[in-house]
Amino acid sequence: QVQLVESGGGLVQAGGSLRLSCAASGRTGSTYAMGWFRQAPGKEREFVARIRWSGGSTDYADSVKGRFAISIDNARNMLYLQMNSLKSEDTAVYYCAAQRIGRLQYDSWGQGTQVTVSS
Predict the structure, then answer these.
(1) How many whole angstroms separate alpha carbon 95 and alpha carbon 22?
(2) Residue 42: how many other CB atoms lie within 10 Å
(3) How far is CA 57 from CA 49, 52, 89, 96, in A?
């Protein structure tokens, strides 16, 4: 399995930016894709963005398209989420996740990092 540790969360004003990082360790060689998810208080966890471990192919939730950018440095086993033009509705705990080759679900999750956007 892959171990994941997020960092970079914090408190930011609406319209501001944050960059989240996720450090991956363990069996990263079997990773097919990495993703960011978030969970706001009282809500279900939702998909934010994903990227192939090899880089290139990305997907975003409609709510973050044009504002967030996912990237990966697989040589350093690092995943990033650049978040710009933040809104109060982006407030949530953000999780990174890894999907192994041949698996349909993400099966490794980090502990999460809190992002709070004040209006």
Answers:
(1) 9
(2) 5
(3) 11, 6, 26, 17
Which residues, in sequence order, are bridge partners of residue 25? 3
Measured between its terminal Cα atoms, the distance across the chain in Å is 39
Partner residues linked to 100 by β-bridges: 31
2, 9, 74, 101, 103 from 81: Cα distances, Å: 19, 11, 14, 22, 23
Q: Give the pLDDT band (50/70/90) at residue 55.
A: confident
Average pLDDT over residues 55-72: 95
pLDDT of 1 reads 84
The CA distances from residue 47 to 18, 26, 42, in Å, are 18, 24, 16
- 47 within 8 A of 58, measured Cβ to Cβ: no
Mean pLDDT confidence for 12-26: 97
